[in-house]
Design brief:
The longest helix has 20 residues. This protein starts with a strand and ends with a helix. The chain has a 6-stranded mixed sheet, with helices on both faces. The protein has a 5-stranded parallel sheet with strand order 9-6-7-8-16, sandwiched between helices. 54% of the residues are buried. With 498 residues, the protein is of the alpha/beta class. The model has no long low-confidence stretch (mean pLDDT 96). The chain has 22 helices and 16 strands.
């Protein structure tokens, strides 16, 4: 399996090169040259497997330059039982009828990012041995909350790596901030920026492609890579759980092998739903991929109209991991849907950089709309959705999951398409205790600190508090740096002691 770049399709690299490098030299994103295919018999054969075996079955098709021993080392280490609070790793829960929730937050940081970021350090270590000539890999991360902590936890004390995380100073929940600023490890650093996630992500991309900075790193035998979903090694593990949930639905007698399902994904950077698209193109019987946005509904507008326009008001919401106006992984979808037209991608990305917007052809958006539907949930509907689902089903969901649930309910009303559906649940409700408690109590949550909120949410709902959240109250804050987005490159040098 070889990989090319969305902005130069003459490039060919191995999986290990794509993972170690993170982003292509000219700024494009690595994508597979072709996709493997699974027939229904092969998918059905996975129903008897545990998550680790399912992961190996999918990943070996993409990581063809990894030996069987290397792949086993990576996958078995990433999804070891002691790291996850559910033996199924990513359990599928039936809420009502054809409505199913895929719980992706049972890992060590209580967010779906663990599904990839527990595996990425292993993939990176093996890839670096194959390609990086003994260099120290510097992982640079922009986060809207969950990626930062999951990456820090995954890479802490991993040999020959350093990880630097930037987060928007007012753009994460108090619990997300605490998770990052108390991070343990000798090779980690965290810094807030005055700005939003898009500012952080744009600056990180700029640093990645800055030749002067890369030369300085090279002098110290270092190289950049990414733990954001722009890195193929972050994206490919996410394909696995779509196959896994389909197998779970078969085992739960909710579907038969070959039946179509819908997938609903709360979406910010477009990586999670793109993994679902890859699963569909590989042969998983997915009818429609429903993209769920919060008030920052730039993706919904694009999928409805064909115009991507980030020139709009930015909302700080109770679902901060979706507070994004520049969705990086959409570039990969556009590349695939345009049949690998790298010149088109360069043109669209230049327009986005220069004008903050672009419009694709009617033909291209029509092609995309055959695969995707989209909707958004205004902030005022999130609380009602959390309360309704807790009261009716005694199922407690976080704010991001609530966005997806509401969009799904509206989708069914509008289309009548109520076939078996999987809704991605991307974070534990305890990562957003204040917002979730306020919703459950219909806006009457008492004035409490963050940890008192956790206790009160447990008292009110009976939902178990994840150990990683409960243990935070005893940890010391280690990182308090704040910088302007213009100063991020200098902060990189400072944090690396260069």
């Amino acid at each position: 399996m070889l990989y090319t770049s969305t902005r130069d399709n003459s490039i060919r690299v191995s999986a290990a090169q794509a993972i170690a490098q993170g982003i292509s030299e000219e700024g494009g994103l690595f994508v597979p040259v072709e996709l493997p295919h699974f027939d229904i018999e092969k998918i059905a054969s996975m129903t008897s497997m545990n998550y680790i075996a399912r992961a190996k079955t999918v990943l070996k098709e993409y990581l063809t330059d990894f030996t069987e021993e290397e792949l086993d080392y990576c996958v078995s280490g990433a999804y070891a039982a002691q790291k996850f609070s559910s033996p199924q790793i990513a359990p599928t829960v039936n809420v009502d009828g054809n409505k199913n929730i895929l719980e992706l937050w049972h890992g060590p940081t209580c967010a779906f990012k663990d599904m990839a970021l527990q595996l990425l350090p292993y993939l990176m270590t093996v890839s670096a041995k194959k390609t990086a000539d003994g260099k120290t890999i510097v992982i640079l991360v922009a986060t809207s909350g969950d990626t930062g902590k999951a990456a820090l936890e995954g890479f802490k004390n991993v040999d020959n790596t350093k990880i630097l995380v930037f987060y928007p100073v007012d753009g994460v929940s108090p619990m997300q901030k605490l998770q990052m600023t108390t991070q343990e490890g000798e090779n980690v650093a965290v810094c807030a920026i005055n700005g939003n996630f898009d500012d952080a992500q744009s600056a990180v991309k700029s640093i990645f492609t800055n030749n002067d900075i890369k030369k300085e790193l090279a002098k110290k035998n270092m190289m950049f890579s990414s733990a954001n979903s722009i890195n193929w090694g972050r994206l490919v593990p996410q394909i696995v759980y779509y196959f896994s949930t389909y197998c779970d639905l078969i085992n739960m007698n909710k579907i038969k092998a070959g039946d179509e399902i819908n997938i609903v994904v709360p979406t910010g950077n477009f990586g999670n739903i793109l993994a679902g698209y890859y699963a569909k193109k590989m042969g998983l019987p997915i009818k429609t991929l429903v993209c769920a946005s919060n008030s920052n509904n730039v993706l919904t507008d694009f999928l409805k109209t064909g115009t991507y326009d980030k020139n709009r008001k930015f909302y700080t919401t109770t679902s901060p991991s979706m507070d994004i106006l520049i969705s990086s992984n959409l570039e990969r979808l556009l590349y695939h849907m345009s049949d690998g037209d790298d010149k088109l991608i360069v043109d669209l990305m230049n327009k986005l950089s220069k004008d903050g917007k672009y419009t694709v052809s009617n033909e291209l958006i029509a092609k995309i709309q055959k695969e995707f539907d989209a909707g958004y949930t205004a902030e005022e509907n999130v609380d009602d959705t959390i309360k309704y689902h807790f009261d009716k089903y005694h199922y407690l969901c976080d704010t991001h999951t609530a966005v997806a649930v509401k969009v799904y309910d509206e989708y069914v009303k509008a289309t009548g398409d109520d076939i078996p559906t999987v809704i991605d649940s991307t974070a534990s409700p305890y990562k957003f205790s204040a917002s979730v408690l306020n919703a459950v109590l219909a806006g009457k949550a008492p004035e409490l600190n963050e940890f008192e909120m956790v206790d009160e949410l447990h008292n009110v709902t009976g939902a178990d508090v994840p150990k990683p959240i409960a243990s935070l109250k005893d940890k010391e804050v280690r990182f308090s740096d704040v910088c302007n987005k213009e100063d991020m490159s200098q902060m990189v040098f400072k944090l690396l002691n260069l």
